[in-house]
UniProtKB/TrEMBL annotation:
It comes from Thalassiosira oceanica. Residues 123-133 have a biased composition (Gly residues). Residues 117-155 are annotated as: Disordered. This is Uncharacterized protein. Residues 136-154 have a biased composition (Basic and acidic residues).
Length: 222
C-alpha cells in the first residue's frame, strides 16, 4: 500500500505543480490583455484564445486531481476494510477450530464408551433384544460414526490451514487485497457450511447416544 500511496502522491504533486504553472501563465496573459493597449486585434484574439485554452486545461487538471485524491482515499478504505475482514474471518475460524477440537474429544470418548459397552455385552453372552444382531448394529454405527468424523475432521483441519495461510499475506500487494475482498463473501458462506457440518456431527452424537441406550437396556434385561 505504501508504494501505491507514494505513487498517488507523486502524481498529485506533479498535477498541482502543473496547475500552478498554467495559472501563472493565465495570470500573465490576462495582464497583457488588460495593460497592453497597443496590442493589435489579432494579438488580443490570440491572447483570448490562449487564455480560454489555459482555463480549460486547468479545469481538466483539477478534475483529475480530485479523481486521484478520491482513489487514494478509497484505496486506504479498502485496506482498512480488508484488515478488519481478515481479523473477523480468523476469529471465526478459531472459534470453529476450538469447537471442532471439543467435538472430536466428545465423539472419541463416546465411541470408546460404546465399544466398552459392546465388549461387555459380548462377554456376557448377549441375550434378549440386546442379542448379537443389536450388538453388531451398534458396532457398525459406531464404526461409521468414527469414519465419518475422522474424514470430516481431517477435511476441516486442512481447509482451516489453507484459509489461514492465504490470510497471512493479506497486505502483501494490491492484487492480494482485491482477492481478499472477493474471498470474504465466499469465506462467510464457507464458514456457514462448516457450522452445518458441526451440527451434523451433533446429530451423529445423538445417534450414538441412542445406540448406547439400546445396549444398556439389553444389559439390564439380562
Amino acid at each position: 500500500m505504501k508504494d501505491r500511496e507514494d505513487e498517488y502522491r507523486e502524481t498529485l504533486t506533479g498535477l498541482n505543480l502543473r496547475i500552478s504553472e498554467l495559472e501563472g501563465e493565465l495570470f500573465r496573459g490576462r495582464n497583457n490583455l488588460e495593460y497592453n493597449p497597443d496590442a493589435t486585434p489579432e494579438e488580443r484574439a490570440e491572447l483570448e484564445s490562449r487564455a480560454s485554452d489555459l482555463e480549460r486545461e486547468i479545469a481538466e487538471l483539477r478534475s483529475e486531481n480530485e479523481r486521484l485524491s478520491g482513489e487514494l482515499l478509497e484505496e486506504k478504505r479498502l485496506v482498512v476494510a480488508s484488515a478488519e475482514e481478515a481479523a473477523r474471518v480468523v476469529a471465526q475460524l478459531e472459534r470453529i477450530r476450538n469447537s471442532e477440537d471439543g467435538e472430536r474429544r466428545v465423539l472419541t470418548e463416546r465411541i470408546a464408551e460404546l465399544e466398552r459397552e459392546m465388549e461387555g455385552l459380548r462377554r456376557n453372552g448377549g441375550g434378549g433384544r440386546g442379542g448379537p444382531s443389536d450388538g453388531s448394529e451398534a458396532r457398525r454405527e459406531a464404526e461409521e460414526a468414527r469414519a465419518r468424523h475422522e474424514e470430516e475432521a481431517s477435511r476441516l483441519s486442512a481447509r482451516i490451514v489453507e484459509l489461514e495461510g492465504r490470510l497471512e499475506g493479506v497486505e502483501s500487494d494490491d492484487e492480494e487485497r482485491s482477492k481478499l475482498l472477493r474471498e470474504a463473501d465466499r469465506l462467510a458462506s464457507r464458514i456457514l457450511e462448516l457450522e452445518d457440518s458441526i451440527d451434523e456431527r451433533d446429530r451423529l452424537l445423538e445417534t450414538s447416544t441412542k445406540a448406547a441406550d439400546i445396549l444398556l437396556d439389553s444389559m439390564e434385561e439380562q
